[in-house]
Amino acid sequence: MNKTVNQKAWFFVIPVFVLVAFNAIIPLMTVVNYAFQETFGNNVFMWEGTRWFKQIMLSERFHASLGRQFLFTFIILFIQIPLGIAIALTMPKEGIGVPVCLVLMSMPLLIPWNVVGAMWNIFALPDIGFLGHSLNALGFDYNFTQQIGDAWFTTILMDVWHWTSLVVLLSYAGLRSIQPAYYQAAEIDGASRWAIFTKIELPKMKKVLTIAILLRFMDSFMIYTEPFVLTGGGPGNATAFLSIDLVKMALGQFDLGPAAAMSLIYFFIVLLVCWVFYTLMMRNEEKS
Amino acid sequence: MAKVTLKGLSHSYLKTQSSDADWAIRGVDIDWNDGGAYALLGPSGCGKTTLLNIISGLITPTKGDILFDDKIISGLSPVERNIAQIFQFPVIYDTMTVYDNLAFPLRNRKIPEEEIKVKVHEIAEMLELSSTLNNRASGLTADGKQKISLGRGLVRSDVNAIMFDEPLTVIDPHLKWILRSKLKELHQKINRTMIYVTHDQTEALTFADQVVVMHEGQIVQTGTPVDLFEKPKHTFVGYFIGSPGMNVLPCQIKGNDVIVNGKKIETHQQIKKNNFNKTEVGVRPEFISFSNEGIPVKVLSVSNTGRHKIIDTESETGKIKIIAKSNEDIPSGSTFLKFKKEYTYTYGDSWIIE
Asked: Domain spanning B4-230: which CATH class is it, in words?
């Protein structure tokens, strides 16, 4: 097919370009500006070159929060992806159960993030919260505001509660799109349930799972509001993930230069991981 | 390999049935001999896929029995029935190679790997897939994939029957012909019972020795392609098979005489009774000629297909189509038609009057 050349069509891109410029490019450039300079206010800037980048890259504090971030993201992916697939597999395929399950599954996704944090904070309070009180009544020494393990446990549980549904809905959509003939053929071929899962369902879900993993990676890697409301990054710095640490540095200590450099590094890590992951997942697709 | 018998088979997708329309198939009796090639022919929604799925065990019928070699197998699962089925869309296991795809049904049945190797190579040879055995199955074209589906049915040497559910739907027209000949050739080579479901009369008539025509959940006629063409037992068979289909005109029966548009005509049968709500005369366009007397008609249009001419005419009680040789002169305006007696049948309530 020959495409018609129409340079005037570029004018239609202008509104989007202006919009993106205002909400993404200009703020990002401001950050870039801060990342290479030092300021003491009054719009006075001094060139610092790559100093802030070196400082961040070598800082133990950054290493620690980056480590916590990766650990958190891997744990929740490790739980949410298999759990989401498992729930999707057990969901009803027809009848009244379908809308009921879908609505119930969507509920956590509809709750604003700070509300989720507040809910879980109260829910997990060791003295009056249902979860905290019950755990203590059962004989566990549980206090998420003081014990590191409990803080992690609660944060992960909250994230699993909040976001597993997304994986469920995507997996369910993937499963529903498989033609019945595949199951019928497998039945005739004498395939076991496990073989049906690994040879038909998983390969057919590959695309939606790629999206699910990407979305969950990005969201969990940039998580801020929920742990901020739940633990505030504590106890100590135990649940201070990258963005919590970043906000502390930028707004708490007002170290704008290092914070800007950290934002950029943070941004490139997300970009890099997504790119690598996506390329790996799609590599086989192109081959065939 | 087995003889397939269906006895009084009826199936409904509803829990309760109040009228005939609630049944997907009703009162089906079939006897298919071991090693035969059969086709189930009918329009979409006539129940042919339901019937096929009942035979393979994917659907449990509401009423009736399925017998393989005179043994009732109605309660058995598809695996226990040991049948193979090829679906409308090629079903392949994307992540496996062509070899693994073909070996899959055998591996599931715990057959030793050396035996599988021999069998897979033999089938791949037969289907001309040998050169692609180590490729990923997902990279193949639609016809290649459909060959794999077919191959998975053929690798098991003990299958009772191989069933095809409109297997050529997604295949390019020029490859359809090749695959169809391949199927026919395979049938002669391996001599297994094959049941082919389709809505395409060419596919059914070229593939099968015996064609079963279905209409609204019922079998309307079973016979050889020639039977179906020359003596349709139901008006539906008449106009579903043939291109264009049979002309069906309302008629009156007075005593032993058949009257169409006020003219008495000669038909194949001797009419002995007349207790029908609706009587019709059916004659194929191939068996009508222009004449100086007979049914008066007006010629509406003539289209030349190259091979022959199709003429549309209008009679008092409906349109009549005629097929004539492409070099024949066609009268214009008002003329008369003559029906060939041996191929003109009378139908009572859509069924042929015997």
From this structure: alpha beta
